[in-house]
DNA sequence: AGTATGCCTGAGACTCAGTCCCGTTTCAAG
DNA sequence: CTTGAAACGGGACTGAGTCTCAGGCATACT
């Protein structure tokens, strides 16, 4: 496991990791032994394991940076919670597609390597934990237990879907689509993570003619928290 | 990887797996070699790997059964989608706590073994995929892409939280609390996964007082579309 | 009865990821 | 120039997972 401190972006660690991804993408993950990979990265096998912990973790090394960035962003945020997590999600997206070539190469590598896709799930879950922790911290009183973790899971899911869309067709609109989807998702959880400083709202309710009074009241109560 | 067909519940495979969990919980996961584990399960090392694929997978062997059960349940469901996924989630919960001793022993084992907790994330994700696939299939037309996957993630998150609560204090009310939380979660996504046979809806939209007319109209159009 | 066929098993050799230890290099502080 | 810490390379070692081969055991066929 890589327990090293987060390294700056132009760091030799990051460069070595992208070199590793390139080599693995070109030569195949299973076919490449740790020794060969270390050679291609210009270091000994010992140093490789010391720096990156494992053959799997080297593929996701930059996620450590993105994750640290996200944590800092959320810690400093003074927005309403909904906007802060939306900004954070978009920031992670930006960071992951900053180097488009590297992003595509990793995607290719993942597509052809089931074990790495499984590892990706573990990495991804760290973001979920960070989001959920932040949301628990800032949730309005009375928020149910499941809301932060459900929203956090949704954020990551929406982000991943947007990333996949971006990878399929290099659409510059992927980011704005992501922002739109995030807003819609967060709106589902609005009563708990909205802006408590500006609580005035206008409620517009549309009811089916056959809706019973109970249904109307229940829905209103949920919206109004 | 275990690619064997789903085995019946009293099967020697299942019994061997629970024996394995017991042994690992008592002797420690890392300290137990595959050979020792196979001995404790009454089979050779070769047979162990043939039957269970890996040392990690043997701990989650029964999830294959629960997952198959869930898939069948969803395939046969003719409820509204929201109720079907709620029933499915509760069914999985029931299955996992049916043998309370085994559930607790696995929980203890996971608590002390980080690598198994990471593996658990991968296993858990399979449920997410099953839910999301079903929800995509039955979603009303016009449902945004992110909704099924976000709801699926939320279902799993709520389930896991309920399971953890049940493990902490053996509360019989854990199940009813789970049902309540699921209903509240699903209500957040109601317009897309409600009952299309009874299309009456209750749409409640809350806007900031400063929202422009365009924003209000756009949001309403999305809801009513 | 004898035999052929297919399946599951156990045994052992083999590859390779990851750990550990030890001696060497590097480099900055004194 | 000396010293001490930190990174490095080399190489031995453990253990997971794969693979091959040979034997046991049942059912089916003649």
In short:
Chain A is mainly alpha-helical.
Q: Any low-confidence stretches of chain A, pLDDT <50, length ≥5? A: 1-8
The largest inter-chain interface, given as chain pair and residues per side, is: A-B, 47 and 41 residues
Oligomer: homodimer
Separate helix tally of chain A: 11
What is the string of SSEs of chain A from the N terminus onward? HHHHHHHHHHEH
Residues in helix, % of chain A? 55-70%
Anisotropy-based shape of chain A: elongated
Question: How many DSSP-defined strands of chain A?
Answer: 1
The biggest beta sheet of chain A is recorded as:
none
Terminal Cα span of chain A = 43 Å
Strand content of chain A: under 5%
Average pLDDT of chain A works out at 86
Overall radius of gyration of chain A: 21 Å
Helix/sheet category of chain A:
mainly alpha
List the SSEs and their pairings:
The structure is a homodimer of 225-residue chains.
Chain A lengths: L11 H16 L6 H7 L4 H8 L8 H16 L4 H17 L2 H12 L2 H25 L7 H23 L5 H15 L1 H4 L7 E7 L5 H12 L1
Helix pairs in contact in A: 1-6, 4-5, 4-7, 5-8, 5-9, 7-8, 8-9
Chain A binds a DNA duplex (30 and 30 nucleotides) through helix 3.
């Amino acid at each position: 496991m890589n327990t090293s401190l987060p390294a700056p972006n132009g760091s030799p660690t990051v460069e070595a990791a992208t070199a590793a991804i390139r080599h693995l993408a070109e030569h195949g993950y299973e076919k490449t032994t740790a020794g060969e990979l270390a050679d291609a990265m210009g270091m000994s096998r010992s140093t490789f394991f010391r720096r990156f912990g494992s053959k799997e973790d080297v593929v996701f090394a930059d996620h450590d940076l993105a994750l640290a960035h996200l944590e800092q962003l959320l810690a400093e945020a003074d927005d309403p919670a909904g906007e802060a997590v939306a900004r954070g999600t978009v920031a992670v997206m930006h960071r992951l597609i900053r180097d488009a070539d590297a992003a595509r190469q990793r995607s290719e590598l993942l597509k052809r390597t089931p074990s790495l896709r499984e590892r990706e799930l573990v990495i991804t879950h760290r973001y979920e934990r960070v989001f959920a922790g932040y949301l628990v911290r800032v949730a309005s009183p009375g928020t149910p237990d499941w809301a932060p973790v459900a929203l956090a899971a949704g954020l990551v899911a929406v982000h991943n879907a947007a990333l996949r869309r971006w990878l399929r067709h290099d659409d510059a609109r992927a980011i704005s689509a992501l922002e739109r989807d995030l807003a819609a998702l967060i709106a589902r959880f609005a009563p708990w993570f909205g802006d408590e400083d500006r609580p005035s709202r206008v409620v517009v309710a549309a009811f089916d003619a056959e809706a019973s009074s109970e249904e109307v009241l229940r829905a209103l109560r949920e919206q109004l928290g």
